[in-house]
Amino acid sequence: MDTEKVSSLFVNNMKSQNQTSILEFLLLGFSQDPEHQPMLFGLFLLMFVVAVLGNLLIILAVSIDSHLHTPMYFFLSNLSFSDICFISTTIPKMLVNIQTQSKSITYVECITQMYFFMVFGGMDTLLLTVMAYDRFVAICHPLHYPVIMNPQLSALLVLVSWFISFSYSLIQSLLMLRLSFCTNQIIKHFYCELAQALTIACSDTLINHILLYIVTCVLGFIPFSGIIYSYSKIVSSILRIPSTDGKYKAFSTCGSHLSVVSLFYGTGLGVYLSTHATSSSWKGMVASVMYTVVTPMLNPFIYSLKNKDIKKALRTLGTIVFLRGKFTGFRLLN
C-alpha cells in the first residue's frame, strides 16, 4: 500500500513538472467584443502590410543603387530587415487569432515568439547606436570617415550586434524554459511579452528578473547614452560651421536618424512608464503598439521623405519594375 502511494506521488510529481510541455496560454488582446474584431483585423493588417512593403522597398533601393553602397545605408538596410522581422513576430499570430476567433498560443509558440521579439527588438536598439556612431564619424571626422568606417568595420559592427541580440535572447528563453506555469494561463497582452509571462509563473522568477533588469540597463541605457554622446558632439560640430547652408547640409544627413531614434526611444519609454505607472493592461498594449508596430511602419517614410538619395533610388526601382512589367506583358502578347 505504501509502495502504491509513493508510486502515485512520483507519477503526479512528474506530471506536475512536465505540465509546461502541454501548456497553452491565452492572449487577451485588445477586445473580446466580436463587433470590434473586423476593425482590429483590418487596421493591423494594413499597418503590417505598409511596414513590410515600406522596409522592403528601402532594402531593394539600397541594393540596386551603387551610390547607396555606403556604411550609412548598409546599416539602414539592416535596420529595415530587422524591422520587418520585428513586426512579423507579433502581428501575424494576432491576425490569425482574430480570424479564427481564438486567443490561444501554445507554450512552444509563446517561447519562440518571445525569443525572436527580443532578438529583433535588441537588434533595433544596437543598430540605432551604430548608426549614431556612423553619423558622429561622418560629421566630426569627415576626412577620416572612409578610413574609420571601412567595409570591414561596418560588417563587424553589424555582426557583433546580431551576436549580442541572439545571445541575450537565447539565455532569457532558456531561463523561461525552467519556469512552471500553474492555473493562471492568461497573458494580458496581444503577444507573449516577457514581463507579462513572468507574472503568471508559479515558480521562482528571481533570476529571470535580475537578468531582465541587467539587460534592460545594458541594452537600454548604454546604447542610449552612446547616442546622446554622439549627437552632443554632432551638434557641437554643426554649430561651428560658419555658413547656414553648411549647417543645414550637415544636419540633413542625420535628421532622419534622429527622428527614428526619438520615435523608437520615445515609444519604448512610453511602454515602460505605462507598465509601471498604471495597472491598466489596455494602456500598456496601446503603448506597445506604438513601439512594435507604428515605429517599424513609419521608419521607411521618415528616411525616404527627407532623403534625396533614397528618393532617387526608389524612382529608379519604380522605373525598373515598370519596364520589366511592360516587357513581360509584351512577351505574353507575342
Characterization of the model:
With 334 residues, this protein is mainly α. It is built from 12 helices and 3 strands, in the order αβαααβαααβααααα. It has helices at residues 2-17, 37-64, 71-88, 91-100, 107-140, 145-148, 151-177, 194-199, 206-239, 244-277, 281-305, 308-333; strands spanning 24-27, 104-106, 186-187. The protein has a 3-stranded mixed sheet with strand order 2-1-3. The longest helix is centred in the middle third of the chain and has 34 residues, at 107-140. The termini are far apart.
Please give a handful of descriptors for the protein shown.
334 residues; mainly alpha; three-stranded mixed beta sheet; globular; disordered N terminus
Strands, helices and their partners?
Layout: H1 2-17, E1 24-27, H2 37-64, H3 71-88, H4 91-100, E2 104-106, H5 107-140, H6 145-148, H7 151-177, E3 186-187, H8 194-199, H9 206-239, H10 244-277, H11 281-305, H12 308-333
Parallel strand pairs: 1-3
Antiparallel strand pairs: 1-2
Helix pairs in contact: 2-3, 2-4, 2-11, 2-12, 3-5, 3-11, 5-7, 5-9, 5-10, 7-9, 9-10, 10-11
Describe the structure in brief.
The protein has twelve helices and three strands; from the N terminus they run αβαααβαααβααααα.
